[in-house]
Amino acid sequence: MRIYTYYTNIRFRDQDELIHLWKESWERMGFEAIVLNEKYAQRHPDYQDFIDKIRFIHSKVTGKPIKLYGLCCYVRWLAYAMVGRDEDPTTPAMNERFLVSDYDVINNGWEPSYFSSEKMHFFDEACPCLVYGSSIEFDLLCRAFFDITMMRLEDNIKILDKGYHDQNFFINNFTKQNNLTVEKLLKKYNMVMTRNPDEHVAPFNPDKKQTCKAFHISHHNTGKIVDMYPEKYNLSDYKHRGQCLNKARIEIIKEIFKDQENDNI
Asked: Which residues, including other chains, have CB under 8 Å from residue 18's CB and lie 6 or more apart?
């Protein structure tokens, strides 16, 4: 089975090493790990229309232009929707499901044979860090960003005025606390959202033996670990906290690898 991630160089440090570790973690378990980029997304026939619509809805909801990072969060879904449209015979068919993830989601024992859902499955509820679906479903999702936002524009504006990235879209429109008609949307877009941190994906906790099949070593998760162990990840060694977190995340993942190797001995 293939798992895809998306990367665009927006001058975040240490991303190449992070992506290398992401690939290694999934390939160890028998996946083919593939990195897509903006050039690939640009091959989608609706690329420019998609960009224009994302900029429009962000401005409508927040009153501000979308920044590059936020735009990249949306464009990755267009890249996933492009899979199977090209003439490469090694890519999945458009109706064949595959995994997509953030490249800070590290495999902790998930095997390809596990995934068999007939719906687009979000494994961490409204956090889109690990999703199973087909390019047809991702294409429909790309249209939903605009259609659902415009349909619920008044509700979205009431909920949020600072940022409207893809995760904000899911939180605002696909959670019961923010949308009483969420079940209709889930059915319409053939989606299921679950959160089972004991079995699926969870933040990494160095003080706990975890049974989840993937760790999401997010920026927030890394920050909590650094604050738990300030003597290990010395903030004074770096000019900015962000630099410390980037370096710490690499070290945390390498430590996870060592633990996994020890468990297999």
From this structure: 103, 104, 246, 249, 250, 253
Which residues, 6 or more positions from 74, have their beta carbon under 8 angstroms from its beta carbon? Answer: 50, 54, 145, 165, 166
Residue bearing tokens 């920050």: 223
Q: How confident is the model at residue 244 (pLDDT cuts 50, 70, 90)?
A: confident
Q: Where are the domains of the chain?
A: 2-193
What pLDDT digit, counting tens, does each position of 70-106 carry? 999 999 999 999 998 876 666 777 788 999 999 999 9
CA distance 88 to 72: 24
Task: Say if residue 78 is exposed, middle or buried (CB neighbours under 10 Å; 0-12, 13-18, 19+).
Answer: buried
> How many CB atoms within 10 Å of residue 263?
10
Q: What are phi and psi of 36, to 5 degrees?
A: -100, 160
> CA separation (Å) from 206 to 201, 215, 252?
15, 11, 9
249 class by beta-carbon count within 10 Å (0-12 exposed, 13-18 middle, 19+ buried): buried
